[in-house]
Amino acid sequence: MNKKELEAFAKQAAKGIKTEADLNDFRAMLGVVDQILAIDAATPRV
Question: Which domain of life is it from (predicted)?
Answer without folding.
Answer: Bacteria
